[in-house]
Amino acid sequence: MPDKIDFVNNKNVSLVIPGRNCARTIRSCLEAVVPLLRQPGSLLEEIIFVDDGSTDETKDIVAEFPVTCLAGLGQGPGSARNLGWRDAKCPLVWFIDSDCVAEPDALSLLLSHLEDSKVGGVGGSYGTMTSDSLLSCLIHEEIVERHRSMDTKVNFLATFNVIYRREILEQIGGFDERFLKGQDAELAFRVIKAGYELRFEFNSKVRHYHPTQLSSYLKTQRQQGYWRVWLHLSHGGHALGDSYSSVIDHGQPPLAMLVLITSPLVVLPYARWVPAGLVVALIAAQLPLTLRLTRRLKKARYLCFGFMSFIRAFWRGIGMTHGMFGYVGSKLTTAK
Questions:
Q1: What is the mean pLDDT of each run of 10 residues along the chain (336 residues)?
Q2: Among the four 19, 68, 287, 323, which has the fewest Cβ within 10 Å?
Q3: 13-212: what fold?
């Protein structure tokens, strides 16, 4: 790790926002952060939007704001973020997503942690822009519940609201562009391996447009499962849990796949207890977080979280199964 960083002279910030076909959300995203460019005492010096191959009105909307717009390569958010931070002029790089609306103090709350030179990155939490949807509320409150349990010092950060020191991004090579999902966790693991600390600031929040359609949400969860396999096979030691999720969470997708594999046994009188027992175990795995949400929010509708999470486990499991074959196939191809 380098010598102590002069925070006083190295605290100005470049904001990088990657996006593709985000016309529905990018205006509210930029309306929240552009005022920081003109705000007295603000450390935000520039905003860089990386358009990763949009075919809607995204670029026209971005052109209305004092924002640098870069043309991405259409290779995913990791590639777009790499283009953005490499073009950045400031020593600190703030990443938010194009479907996030930053609270006025989101940036300043993150920056306070970087006065410690051991800290390589710091991330924040979520608010919501879609509180009128039950699915969105279930997704949002699960994330908040997990964030409430996280310590200040963490081993995992997401990129919807995070700052990294630019020199660290240079040192470790930025985001691994192979990862179309999970590239934020992959980066965090390498930052820690390089000898830096990661911090989490619960009070720094960006309001997010969470999914409102179950089909699109489950599709994303299948993709997350695929890339989680690549992540854990590439970086050992995290499969049993991290600062955000526990061994119970990580065990649910494999358990769901065991339910599917053993389901034919229901026709055998002396073996049908096997799939039945696995289903009971998977249901039981939903109870701790479901009950925590329902108790905290004091609304019976959050009991629906258990059903959503149960179904989600199967989609993540399918993605993980696909990811296992994909990872092994890539290794065999590389070995030839």
A1: 43 95 97 94 95 96 97 93 97 97 96 93 96 96 96 94 97 93 92 96 97 96 94 82 89 97 94 95 97 96 97 97 90 71
A2: 287
A3: Spore Coat Polysaccharide Biosynthesis Protein SpsA; Chain A (3.90.550)
